[in-house]
Write a structure and sequence with these properties.
It contains 14 helices and 15 strands. It is of the alpha/beta class. It has a domain of 248 residues: TIM Barrel.
Length: 363
Amino acid sequence: MSFEPLKIGKYTIEKPIVQGGMGVGISWDRLAGSVSKEGGLGVISAVGTGYYANKKYAHKLVSDRPLDVANFYSKEGLTAIINNARKICGDKPLAANILYAINDYGRVVRDACEAGIDIIITGAGLPTNMPEFTEGYPDVALVPIVSSAKALTIICKRWQKRYNRLPDAVVLEGPKSGGHQGFTYEQCFMEEYQLENLIEPVVEEAKKWGDIPVIAAGGIWDKSDIEAAMAKGAKGVQMGTRFIGTHECDAHENFKQVLLNAKKEDIILMKSPVGYPARGVHTHLTDLVEKREGPAIKCISNCVAPCHRGEEAKQVGFCIADRLSDAYYGNMETGLFFSGSNGYRLNEIISVKELMHKLTEGE
């Protein structure tokens, strides 16, 4: 079967494949620009933009890390990433993923709008006030991430009442995605919370609000997975981990190697300072954290509100901003390498062009 284009607000995505936003620094200008260029929707992660271009846009560093929110979520860094992605994809649609749980969420959304982003995707909490930060930018499409029909109902009711608008699309993320999950640890393994059982109820709910396009995410790996999601009513899919296996992915070569070397049992769910379970690869860091011998926790960047300035980090044994940025730099000792549950299936590094061809035309 050939896939229909995906409509998100005023934008048409030629191939209905959204590349998941991966931070720190895994999906920046090269990956997102290349995916959009090849007809998918490239998504820039807004996390840790102070690390971009060797911390050129972080104006204050402590221990060589961006100090506090303004430098960790650097406006100049995000603008430079968006501008450089545009050099690759031209005027094709380009998105930013901005986590709801971050400090300065509203400011970062406005930064992305000012830099000319077309679509904003937000998860890690229910973004019930998302539209108020895009006022004055009516063309910017808004896409919340949900894990249930109930969550979509809450967002639609709130947005319609307060802002007289509805989501332009919704990402439904099941519990097999990389990074943070919108489920408890137990729910991640329960049958009723698996993506294939969530799509139809969310599609039904989306129809009640004017047929909002549903984008299925979490564990999608190949063309047959895309077809299965579409058969249940999804209009598109979001995929993160598979795009790490591309030459254009902004991740360090060591990050790609961690996934190439991973076995099925290496991909685990762990506790996170963000308050949600997170999925990643079992590495040296995981062992250190289990023994409470991980790197010192200093909370230099103050990245996410639920961590309470490092209090949660101390509880779980690691600082998420520092460990994800170490992974971005390819530090095998102290890096935290997020991956979806299928990450162990990665066995080659290919171009984005070739991957998009495989996903739409088959192997």
